[in-house]
Structure formats: C-alpha cells, structure tokens
Specification:
Elements lengths: L10 E4 L9 E3 L2 E5 L5 E7 L10 E11 L7 E7 L2 E9 L2 E5 L4 E4 L4 E5 L4 E6 L7 E10 L10 E5 L4 E4 L2 E7 L1 E2 L2 E2 L8 E8 L3 E6 L5 E6 L3 E3 L2 E3 L4 E6 L3 E6 L3 E8 L5 E5 L2 E3 L2 H16 L39
Antiparallel strand pairs: 1-26, 2-23, 3-4, 4-5, 5-12, 6-11, 7-10, 7-12, 8-9, 8-11, 10-13, 14-15, 15-18, 16-17, 18-25, 19-24, 20-23, 20-25, 21-22, 21-24, 26-27
Protein name: Pirin family protein
Keywords: Iron, Metal-binding
Cofactor: Fe cation
Length: 330
Amino acid sequence: MSNVESRPDELRCGGVATAAPGPELLRPREVPLGGPRAMLVGRTLPNRHRRMVGAWCFADFYGPADITGQPGMQVPPHPHTGLQTVSWLLDGQVLHCDSVGSTQLVEPGRLSLMTAGRGIAHSEESPADHSAVLHGVQLWIALPGEERGVAPHFEHHADLPVISTPEGTATVLVGSLLGGTSPATTYSALVGAELSVHPGTTMVIPVEAHFEHAVLALWDITVDGHEVSTGDMLYVGSGRDAVTITAAGRGRAMLLGGVPFEEQIVMWWNFVGRSHEEVAEARAEWERNRRALDEPGRFGVVHGHHAPPLPAPALPNAALRARGRTRDRP
C-alpha cells in the first residue's frame, strides 16, 4: 500500500527506546487512500508520539467498508525501498501486481509479504468482481541497515500456523507465537499475529520479554485491563511475559512485537532510508523510472494496471533527518 498523501509529513523514527512507564493508547488519524473520493484508512503508526514497535513502522486499518457498486481500493503503481509490506485481509479481495512479475489475489487468512529491499513498485486494486465488504490491515516492517539493499521479492503464504486454545485462536503471520512459526521471511526478531477471542473470555498470550509489544484492535477489546476501541492501538511496552485480551463479544486483534529497532531511520512517503540524500535519490530515480515506462530502471515496471504510476510528492524545504523513535528523543 502507498502513503498517497500529497504532502506527506517527515516521519522520523528509530533509535533505542527506553521502557515506557505504562501503556500508551495510540489513536489513528484518518488518511484518504487514493484521492478525494477514496476510502479512508486509520493510521496508528507512525503516531504523534510513538513511531515504531520493534521493526513495525507503519500500520493502516481500513473497513469494514461497504464498496457495493464502488471501485473500492485503487492504488496505482508506486515505489517502496528499505521495507517489507504485510497485507492482511479480514474481508474482501485485493489484487496485487508488482515489478518482479508477481500477480496475486490477496484474500482473507492468506499472507502477502513484499520485500522492497533496494527498490520495487507495485499496485493494489479491488478486482472488478469484488465482494461487498473490504476490511483489513496494511503493515510495514523496516529492514535493518545491512539488509535494506536486498533484492526485491514477493511471498504469498496460504498455509499459516493457526493455534487453537479454549479461549480462541492465534494465526501467526510472521515470527513465532504459542509454539507456531510462520514460514514468512523476516530480517529482524519480531512477531505478528491475528488473535480471535471467544465472547466473554480472556486469552493470555505468552510473549518474549525482550520484545516490545502493541495490540491493534480489529474489534472492541480490553487489553491488560485497558479498553481499546476498534482501530486503536495499545502499546504495552517490554519486560513482560504475557499479554491478556478480553472480549465481551467476539474479539479480534493484531499483536505486533519485536526487539526495539536500534537504528535511526528516515521514513518519507513510501521510502525508508537513513538520510535525506538516500531518500532524495530514491525519489529522483522513481520520477525517472515512471516517465520512462519502456526502461525498467531501479524500480521496474508494473504490468496489468490501467492507471499511470503515482508521481512522487515534492520533498520538504528542510532536509530530512533521522531522529529518535519517539517524539521526545533527539
């Protein structure tokens, strides 16, 4: 998915974080996805204060949206560098096409993981015969410095570990949880899982104490005694061996966690880098790439999408700078 804001903020992330004094409730801001009549998504990461959870650096939640008789998601070809995208649907379908030749219909319960590495382009659109409802999440994972130049590639996993307990189920998207390990390729120590909690029960999820964790509510839930509304995220910190989720009705949530990301990064538009110069170079190459459609360049060519590639926004007047992972860190 693209950050399609015409004037994207400089999103300053990274650096070692100290343990939070207590849980932090991260509320989303609404962002239009693809123009003035586009569907809205709720963005909880990066947030006003907390920018990352482990290597997780971006989290959009959308729906459930009734797209009957509407185009639904329509994101033309756009670039990425230095990250992985995680596409996860609860309802609906999204057609993914990318510049390494992948064409994949993304459906509920099946993981699509795209590693941008040194550079990739892709498009995402609801197919013409899409179902009535679109509901899902899009997540980004920052690649560590030594891996951010890897060759771009795409993975689709239809057979993920699903661990059942008396209180519900956990589907492991990346990393390991409750004895299940995802086949998805990762480049840092992290975990991502969808949790489904039966009505009126509390699920206790053992977690790695050296990870920091957050829970994104897909439906209303209570996390460690804190009410978390649909679309909100509760950062619960590190140094704990379990997270508890209670649901009055049926509860669904994303558990995200990882070792605190030790590098300072610059995230602007769809690029993750380490300096203004690195991001500016990626932007310039994308602009050359999208204008010369017969020359693949760094980002390649996305075939099968009717719309022209997205132009890159103008860089801000001030130089982009890598800063701490939270607003109050230099």
